[in-house]
Design a protein that fits this description.
The protein is an alpha/beta fold. The protein has helices at about 5-30, 35-60, 65-140, 145-180, 190-210, 230-245, 285, 295-300, 310-320, 370-380, 395-405, 425-435, 450-460, 470-480, 515-525, 535-545, 565-575, 580, 595-600, 615-625, and strands spanning about 185-190, 210-220, 225, 250-260, 265-275, 325-330, 335-345, 360-365, 385-390, 410-415, 440-445, 465, 505-510, 530-535, 555, 585-590, 605-610. Strands 1, 2, 3, 4, 5, 6 and 7 form a seven-stranded mixed β-sheet that branches. The chain binds adenosine-5'-triphosphate and magnesium ion.
Amino acid sequence: MSIPTGHGLHHIEALVFCIASVGVLLFKQRSAFNANKLYRIFSRVLAAQLAFFVLMLAYVLVDPAAFNVIIIIVIHAAVLADLFVYIHYTDRLMHERNAALEAEKEAATAQSKAKTMFLSNMSHDIRTPMNAIIGFTNLALMDVTNTVKVQQYLGKIQASSSHLLSLINDVLEMSRIESGKIELDETRCSLPDILHDLNTMIIGQVEAKQQELFMDAMNVKHENIFCDKLRLNQVLLNLLSNAVKYTPSGGQISVRVIEVDGAPEGQASYVISVKDNGIGMAPEFAAKVFEAFERERTSTTSGIQGTGLGMAITKKIIELMGGTIEVETAPGEGTEFKVRVTFRVQEGKGADIKIASPGEFHALVVDDDFNVCDSTTKMLAEMGLRAEWTLSGKEAVLRARQALELNDQFDLFIIDWRLRDLNGIETARQIRASVDKSIPILLMTAYDWPTIRDEAIDAGVNGFCNKPLFTSELHNILKKVLKVTALPDMKSDQSKDAVNFKGKRLLLVDDIDVNREIAIMLLETNGFIVEEATDGDEAVEMVSKSEPGYYDAVLMDIQMPTMNGYEASKAIRALEDKKLASVPIIAMTANAFDEDKQAAFDAGMNDHVAKPIEIEQLLVALKKVLK
Ligand code: ATP
Ligand code: MG
């Protein structure tokens, strides 16, 4: 056995050099491509080469004569293998990297396309009302003396500007939701309140289009829940205003709340359906209805105003609540949106709702919707009444008479106002003709009953229930009417809470002349005396120098140059004279987000009204603080 010398050693050096360079390459590769795969492959090649080298070395030690030939073959093979592996895998890697880059680029293009689309939609949607505002303002200016025309133009300007405002609000809302800035503010609330408020808000639009509105609650066992009332309201109002918008005059719209089984302990699940028999949507469009800015052609060409953001916002809010929304629709056949949500319920007061010993009272429910009859009779049964129902007014009259003959007369009638055959008031009149005055007849309606009250009372009705009818409310009404013969003070108490603003003095704080001018006009028309301050420090000075009680309230802008509204409010609250310091302050500002409201309350203000001013809202806020 001999050690290879001379020439042979060069070969070994070359081989070692070759392996070492593969090693260096490998080391470099590690970071250069961050290419795990290449790294792995090279490691293996290196290991194999080392093993081969050791094998050859052993062989050469045994037979030195073969050394030169073998070593040359090995070196060439090793170099070739390294080159091959290097080229092949680098190539593949480059390929993969390019593909990844390509995909990234495509995604970026899609995103920028979506952005461009968004901007072009926005710009179009903002330009349209803006054009109208500018155009009609010019027309009005050219024709100022013609009051009839000017009035027309102003009406159009008003409509366009309120559209523009809702568009801006929607876009802001959307971007806030998307950036995760919106959090739900869950408080104790009552479903009956939420639905009745919804009714109040929408009924004007429904009546303006001479549509019919049905609102029902079924099997609702949990009326008191924890939820974000404002957001839920927003969702429902969105669905309902769409239903009104996309349903022709004379159409029907219904809202139905059903409590369904299957909620976890301490929670309750509801299905809220908003249904109309309006223009409906094509299936292809229905699939996209929850995407931002999507509006179906039929709705855009029909000239119905909208931004196409309502449904996108609605869906996002429902998802935030952990719920779902689905749509069922067909062109010309109407649309039904179903929202499924689960809320925590307020720990049960579980008060006993029995008002009678079983069977003591006999009641008749009259409504042409079976589901309403079903749900109402169940509620009555829970309260201990023996309840029956009928779908028709005429039949109700006949059954009332028959019950008398059978000596099993009804002690209570609950009649829907909108019956198909004989309307509720007429049904009540005919029933009253045969039953005693002491038997209560209640009229159910989803409409504002003051408008029908006098007629109904004349027909013999002695109580009203608002639809949707909830157990707690029915319970309260029954407790009153089943003992008392007639409902007291039905004819009075209408304008009890009307506050007279005449002579009330306000301090209006705003740095912008136009804003003050508009506000003063609106307020003075409502009887207020208005004084002005153009900045926070001026306002603080005016309040501190005034007699306590001189100002009935302060309307405070927030963004002002030297002293802003928050600081000014804090300064007023810190005045020595307690009476002066407690003057009601209402923030009146374009900063309309929840955190702005919170900041206003934190600064000691009593309320918050968003700008541009909606006089009704401002009056409501003023009414609250001036009481
Ligand atoms: P806005 O943002 O002002 O609410 P919009 O009503 O046009 O505008 P969405 O509420 O998002 O926008 O509704 C999107 C589209 O879905 C509508 O333009 C309309 O084409 C269609 N749509 C929504 N609700 C109904 C419905 N009840 N019946 C028929 N089509 C509807
Ligand atoms: Mg809408």
